[in-house]
């Protein structure tokens, strides 16, 4: 075994073509490994970034609207969500009669090499925290709560409102 290794090492030392070939093979292998790692994680990162941007946008819009409520004063908003986005793909279902009964298989519908997306659903809001200068006043508190419940379609039990110091 060691004599084979010695022959290979000797050939690498003396033959420039062999060295170049080995370097090219190693380079291609590294590029493939790095490429698969980058693209494999990319879809998760894109989904996380998309949800994060969605939540930030909601917080900003809600904050801007609640700041306009009479007596609310300065308002800060934080929103939490249940999970990531849900994507519903178009599928084709094929039912085959077999000797054991029916066999059903579903495959995604592809158009021009891309999967057809029927809908994308944003994550459900699990909680809203509002900190407001005017939240100590019960009427301001109720208006903040009602406006948030209406705008985000969440139960009031998921909305926490605190007075700012």
Record keyword descriptors for this entry.
165 residues; 30% strand
* Strand arrangement, major sheet: 1-8-9
Whole-number count of domains: 2
Low-confidence stretches: 38-46
Mean pLDDT: 80
User: What Rg do the Cα atoms give?
Assistant: 29 Å
Largest sheet: 3 strands, mixed
- SS-derived structural category: alpha+beta
- The CATH topology name of the largest domain reads GMP Synthetase, Chain A, domain 3
Helix content percent band: 40-55%
N→C terminal distance: 76 Å
* SS summary, helix count: 3
What is the H-and-E element order?
HHEEEEEEEEHE
The name of the CATH architecture of the largest domain is 2-Layer Sandwich
> What is the CATH homologous superfamily assignment of the largest domain?
ANL, C-terminal domain
The CATH class name of the largest domain reads Alpha Beta
Per DSSP, what share of the residues sits in E-state strands of 2 or more residues? 25-35%
Strand count: 9
How does the overall form come out from the CA principal axes?
elongated
How would you describe the overall organization of this protein?
The chain is an alpha+beta fold. The protein folds into two domains: 2-85 and 122-163, ANL, C-terminal domain (GMP Synthetase, Chain A, domain 3, 2-Layer Sandwich), CATH 3.30.300; 86-120, no CATH class. The chain is 48% helix and 30% strand. The radius of gyration is 29 Å and the shape is elongated. The relative contact order is 0.13.
């Amino acid at each position: 075994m060691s004599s084979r290794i010695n022959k290979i090492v000797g050939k690498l030392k003396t033959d420039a073509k062999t060295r170049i070939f080995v370097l090219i093979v190693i380079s291609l292998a590294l590029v493939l490994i790095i490429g698969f790692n980058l693209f494999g994680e990319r879809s998760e990162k894109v989904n996380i970034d998309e949800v994060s941007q969605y939540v930030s946008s909601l917080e900003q819009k809600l904050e801007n609207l609640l700041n306009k409520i009479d007596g609310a004063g300065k308002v800060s908003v934080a929103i939490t969500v249940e999970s990531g986005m849900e994507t519903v793909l178009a599928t084709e279902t094929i039912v085959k009669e077999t000797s054991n009964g029916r066999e059903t298989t579903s495959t995604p519908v592809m158009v021009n090499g891309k999967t057809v997306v029927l809908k994308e659903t944003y994550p459900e809001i699990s909680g809203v925290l509002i900190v407001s200068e005017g939240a100590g006043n019960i009427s301001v508190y109720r208006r903040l709560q009602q406006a948030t419940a209406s705008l985000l379609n969440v139960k009031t039990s998921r909305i926490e409102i605190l007075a700012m110091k």
